[in-house]
Amino acid sequence: MTTRPGLGGSQRQPQRSLSANIVQRPPPNRTLSQQFSPSSPVRRTTGESFGDLPFEDDAALGRYGTLPRNGGSRLKLEISGDSRSPHLVESPKLSGNATPTSAWRLAPPPRGRPQLHFDVPSGSHLSPRVSEGGNVEAAIKPMPLPVRPVQHTRSVIEKARPVSVAKKDARPKPYVLDAPSIAPHYMRPGDDREKDEKSGVVDFFPWTGKHPEDQYTETAIRHGYYDKSQMSQNETGAGKTAISKGIKDRGSNLSILSTLFTTILEQRRSHGQIKTSSTFKPPPRVTVVDYKRELWLKDLANPTISLRRLSRSIPHGIRGKVLLDQSLSKSIPIDRAVWLAKCVGANELRAFRRKGAGGTIVMGGEAKWIRDFTICVEQFVESIVNSIGEKDFKGKINYAVRLATHFHAEHLLDREHYMEWLVISLENSPQVKLPIWLLVTQIYWKDLLRHRKYGRRLSTALMNHLAEIHTSPDSDILAPLSDRLKSLVKGILVSKPESFVSPKNWLKQRDILESILAEEDQRYSTVIESIERRNQQLSATNTRNGSSTRRTLIGLLDSTLSRSFPKGLAKRCWSLGEDKGILVQTILDWATSYHRPGIAKIYVGTRILRQWARYGVDITHSILEFLDSKACEIGFLEQEETGDEAIRKTWRDKYTLYHLISELARSDHFSVATYLQWLVSRGGLYTIQDVDKDGPCATRLLVELPTHNLNESVRILRMTLLRRVGFMVDDEGENIKEVEMSLSEALPGMPGNTDFHPKTKDYSAKYYVYEDSCHSNRSIKSEIGLWLRQKVKIQMQQPTIPPLDDWDDSPVRGGTSAITISDFNTIRQYLESSEDYSMLADILKIVTCSNEPEILASCADTLNLHIDIFSAIGALDDLFETLVGRLRALSEDASFPRVLLASMSDLAARIPEQANVAQQLALELNRSDRTAVDACSPVSDHMAGVIQNAEVDFVDEIEKILASGNSMDQATLERLFQRIISHLEACWSKSFEQYRSCAFLLTRLRTFSTQQYDILMTSWVSNYLQKDDRPFMMDVLGPLISWGCLALKDVATICALASGDTLSAKLRSNEMLQLLIVSQQNQNNAMTLEETYRLRIKQSQLQVEQPAEVLRILQRAFEEPVHFDAVSEENEFRNLIQRLAITETDLTTKTLIMPCLQATALESPQSQNVSTLVDKLLTADFSLSRPIRISVQKVLSLADDFTLPFCLLKLSSMLSTAESNSANSEGGVSSHVQAFDRAIEMAVATGNTTWTCIVPLLDISIAQHLRSRAETQFLSLFPSPKTTDGIINMPERVKQAENLLYIIEATAYSILMPPPNSTLSSEMVTTFNNTWQLISIVNIHNTELKEVMLHKWLPLLLSFATIHSSAFELNKAGNESRARTLLALAAIILELQALEPMAPVISAMIERAFDLGLQLVDLLPDDMRQQCIRGLRDTTSDPRIAYLFSIAPNPSGWLVLSQKEKAMGANGQVEEKEKLAQFPLKRWEMLGDPTPVIGVNDTSISLTLFGAGRG
After folding, report:
1. Alpha carbon of 231 to those of 114, 234, 1500: distances in Å?
2. How far is CA 592 from the centre of its chain?
3. 10 Å Cβ neighbour count for 1223?
4. pLDDT of 18 higher than 70
5. Where are the alpha helices (DSSP H) in 1106-1203?
6. Are 1034 and 1067 in contact (CB under 8 A)?
7. Nearest to residue 468, comparing CAs of 519, 507, 434?
8. Residue 1291 and which of 397, 1216, 1390, 1478 are 20 to 30 A apart at CA?
9. Contact at 8 Å (CB) between 338 and 410?
């Protein structure tokens, strides 16, 4: 190392400078005392300012902080600066001995070195400095001089450095010359200032013999060594002279500079651009022992170890499930675990390419490997989920979910398989694991909802879980889970309502959404209504002539004809529609129609209207509107020009209407005063015909309304209006008094006013009362009903007569009842004949406080017989509970009264809600009948000597035998049965009391063995029916049925199986019909009034519960017209056949109508009876004595919401008759179908669409014929691009197509499954393609045709395709047709979206076409769906198309490769054309740190493709 001499005549030559320090001289205007500081330390004042140059150590300071003196040197002060801080901007800090003057002395530059820029003070380096006197001086930044070797002292920092406690290494080390610590340092480019402070040392080169300064050359010896840059010969020194001349030219200076800099940048880019090919390859895998594999995995889990170090080699055997398990067990960071998976996957996938197989095989192998890895990830996550509840579950599931999410986000998995697994797991998840699967699934929520394939199933799975929780008994415990499910469902409703567009699933989801979500938040009601509308459009049964609101309401009302009034019926009917006026009109139509049987309909309508009055319906206004309409007229006759007989087209049961309004007026729901004002405003009454019985309903109602609750002014106005037309108002009061007097005479146990005596002659009081009740108006009936209720109330308030010697004052143990059974029967019979059941319900409520079991039993029988009426009134449950309470009270001190127990048991069995009570009552009744004196003794022990004793009373002895034990063997039961039956047969024409006693004994006997008893009874009834001289079935079997020892159903079955000649069979059938329907007491008085009443209960019960058996009885009864005509005139028969035709339409057709018509000739009595019965039902005119001529067209015109079942019966009878007559000729079956076709065509041509109500009720073969014929004609009407010559006849074709679509919609129920070899699907595809081509025409001459296609033909085609969505078979050909239809729909949707402006009609059409595509794509296989995606090409970016076909976005779709191709142009010159090709990313090779050494181009995607350059 060379040295240079120092400055200032110092005694010793200093070594070569270790730093660029400079000694500054003080200015000349300062004294010597100011230049040198005293030797003692000086205290720093507060205002003293020092330089900002910091000192790392004080190597130049003395013991007390002073600088050491050097011999005779001029320099008294040397400043040692810290050259390691290159960013100094102010002068260095002075020591205590240094004077300000010494800092201003400048030192000459070292020898052999030119003067540099920092050797001369610069004005920019001056900074103001405030002295003690306040003078401001400019400070210069000096560079400190090197310290002389003799003056070098140890740094303070080095002295303060703590001594290491570690043992000193005594081993020999090679000598290395270290740079002095005080030598100036500098920063190299790219070094970190904070981490590496000693980056470089200035002018310090230890001798190695290789430095140029260490080489002795002649030039170095002569001139010394100096650094001199090598300059080329062309370089003259600077570029100023080369470009200054051009820059000075004002016109071209900017362009020259631009060209210059552009050239420089181009050269820089060309020299710095990466041109080497990619050297990327994934880290290799090597086989290592298990120990090293574990060490490598631990290093991978350590984030401080770089991946480049680990990428030298990867242990073999880490793949698949092992990789995932090791990542979890070692807690490898997620990014490093994904890096390892990519390394393994990249090597695995490259192995397929190295095998040299074809491209298809390679792609298949890669896809299979990715699928297997996806399955491993799925199993890994599923195993963690199944370990719920174990230790560290939270950490494991967190790691597994995060790892799988990273794989999914980086597209390393088979996404379709993975999302399919997610949906299946959520669908099949139990409630215990459902929260976990919800959390997992929510991570991929957007991806799942982006596809139709998964979105629909996801919403269905959520709704199924929500429904399961909603119906679970632990719903309160699962409330948090339910709330979470609701939140997710709400999110889908808002973001993707298309997920709920699925008619089959919507039927199950609608009620839950409406009950749970819509009620909680009304904002979702609009969304639910929109989804409801879209699903209805996709339903094949949702046609314009389908189930309307009116028909749905009628169906709910018809359900009350065969069962009790259901709870919540009024609310369900109210929610059917928004137009409440139509609902009220329908209620009035139904309750007053002749086509609906019974009295219960009046009270059903009354109860519903009363309930709706609470909802705000003005009942009076609605009834007045109904009275003012044409629908209220009683009916008229119509004669057809085709020769049909006069038929009654409409008919209103005006008596039922008056009854309904009277019930509403009783409860003040109908205002009589408002009605009188309305009547006066219409002109009042004109003639006496206005108030006749057959007069208009609007005016006759004035006579029928009850008057008991009218005030005096309204009563006077009513009397004035009636007297004006000559109506005898005073006669009403006299009639009421006459009826009251007659009833008082008929009620001997209830004394009343006897001052009034009727003017009539001698007559039976009961006969007069009942005859008068049938012909009186509703006003008189209402008054009498109120009078009877008041009379019974007063009577029941009278004290009872206690028996002698009985001082018990409890109400239960009272004496005789205040009302006798005879008086109760009389009152009940009058109210039943006057049909005033509301008053009868009140009287039953009053009478139930009686102590007589017979009275209470009669009350129970009354409820049982009219159970539908009292249920409609709303009194059934209350009265039943009261009677049950009375039964318990009567049985406290004694056993249950059998008569009351039997009646209550029968009544409870008919109330579905009282099944448990019915079972208990049946057990009590059985126990009561089997009460034995000796509980442990069999009956056979007491039989000896009793049967042979003929002198004793028969009934008493048998009762003793039955009461002697609680068990009986088969032989004893047979002997007792035969003994009782023999005595019963002997009493047929002798003693009815003995006959009743035998019936009671049989009832007791049946309790010992029901099965054996029924066998014996069946045998006896069969023998009885075979006898020639037997009595009528009503006289013999009626009492037995009434007492319960013989079932009416068993009698019907025995009659059907009984043998005998034709005359005997006909006789049995008619007698069985009478036993089923006729309820009047016979002339021989074989049954009492109570027994007859119980027989009516048995008849009613069989009619309601056994419709098939009743129809078979009717079918056998049609063979004898004489007896049938007598029975068919009964009102009970009319109600029965109407109820069966309405509630059991199909059963009536198959069991009664079709067998009777097909088994006999057209003119036979049986066929005539059936045809007459059907005509009676259709016309509601039961006075017909023969069938009427009526055409098919007329039947279709009569079809409406009330006559639908009867029109079906008529058409079935007509078609069946035609079929039976033409059975022997060819084409007979098609002849009547063709006639039906012509009738429908005529109805369609005239615009009559009411026939569509009856078509769905026809036989399916007829519907299939009509539909296939209409389908062929419908598709042939559609225009095509080849046949668009003009649109002159286009409106006629559109109208014809609409009519044909009506037929197709009405017969859509016949589409069970596509027929084999059907061409309908291919024809639909052709029609869709033609429609798309016509819509896409933009020629101005075809604008009108395009409008017709958009607004007419396209809606028709979509409706047709919706109906026939099931026409595509689930085979290869059917799937191909389905796929082509979907492609055509997608093209139509794109064409409609391109229209400007977007009209609301077009938007609705787009939605409809999109929904149809959703329904079709749900059954499309995946392979066909992929073919559709490839066929769509560039249109997959459309959101609707992407959702429809479940198109997953390509993660590298944005990346294309630009290729330049040379081609010959049109002018003969070679032109370059740019071609863009898709560049697929290799996701498994997107690795960071793939190699241990960083290369220039070692990325998976070559940097040369991007024109990248070096930094």
Report:
1. 19, 8, 43
2. 39
3. 10
4. no
5. 1107-1117, 1121-1128, 1131-1143, 1145-1148, 1154-1159, 1165-1179, 1192-1198
6. no
7. 434
8. 1390
9. yes
